[in-house]
Design goal:
The radius of gyration is 18 Å and the shape is globular. The strands form three sheets. A five-stranded parallel beta sheet has the order 2-3-4-7-8. A three-stranded parallel beta sheet has the order 1-10-9, with no helix packed on it. Strands 5-6 form a two-stranded antiparallel ribbon. By secondary structure, it is of the alpha/beta class. The protein is built from ten helices and ten strands.
Length: about 240
């Protein structure tokens, strides 16, 4: 087991969650690390947008992993990489590529081509990833029932998450689960849960519900773009942008 993977795994504490303001390049990685965060996470939506591609595997895997590698080189803390749905690579290959750039963990989602994967098949994929990685990667299994149109997204997330944990995932990530669904998810899943701190939720509420990890996705990147837009707009208007 790599020291970084072990450290990242230890930071998943239910009720005292690992907070991850997601990063997208070396500069954002340095800023977040210098703010005192003990680990970093990339967000595929931010990385792909920064590279000029759409999210959901719209960017070539080589470019996405090269960008993640630059984040990792800029960091001295563990970095977990949003690997989307694995880019169509065999489990052993995506593991090898992630380990080659120094990743301590990865996100793997269960949407392929805009459709939710069969949960049993996704569990098989995650089991193969675990077999290839051993303990060298912290696997955060993203569950897309809340964005994929599942009729009962809470129950479906619990069903999928249990399968993924049994397959070897370290954490389950029901992305965009609303605050009122989080307690049921934590209760129903026999492992660490990753939640989003979105408008309408609170860090205190997520911690009280027992989540072990909190993500922000592309929100930090979008805030940075807002700052650039405001600066540029003021300059275009021949105003002092420093006021």
């Amino acid at each position: 087991m790599s020291d970084n993977a072990a450290r990242l795994r230890e930071l998943h504490r239910p009720g005292d969650p690992l907070l991850l303001p997601n990063v997208w390049d070396a500069g954002s990685a340095q800023i977040v690390q210098e703010a005192g965060f003990p680990a970093l996470a990339t967000a595929s939506a931010a990385v792909s947008a920064m590279l000029g591609y759409p999210d959901h595997e719209g960017a070539p895997v080589e470019e996405m992993l090269a960008a993640a590698g630059r984040v990792i080189r800029a960091a001295t803390v563990p970095v977990t990489v949003d690997a989307e749905a694995g880019y169509g690579l065999p489990p052993a290959e995506i593991v090898a590529r992630l380990l080659a750039i120094g990743a301590a963990g990865c996100n793997l989602e269960d949407t392929y081509g805009g459709e939710l994967a069969d949960p049993a098949k996704q569990a098989e994929y995650l089991a193969a990833v675990r077999d290839a990685a051993g303990d060298a990667l912290v696997i955060n299994a993203r569950v897309d029932t809340f964005i994929g149109g599942a009729p009962d997204p809470v129950d479906a997330a619990i069903e999928r998450g249990r399968l993924y944990l049994e397959a070897g995932a370290d954490c389950v990530y029901p992305i965009t689960a609303p605050m009122d669904a989080v307690p049921a998810l934590v209760k129903g899943l026999p492992g660490p849960v990753n939640a989003n701190n979105m408008p309408g939720s609170s860090l205190a509420g997520l911690a009280a519900a027992g989540v072990a990890r909190v993500s922000y996705g592309p929100m930090p990147y979008l805030r940075a773009l807002d700052a650039v837009k405001e600066f540029a707009t003021r300059v275009q208007a021949k105003e002092d942008p420093h006021g």
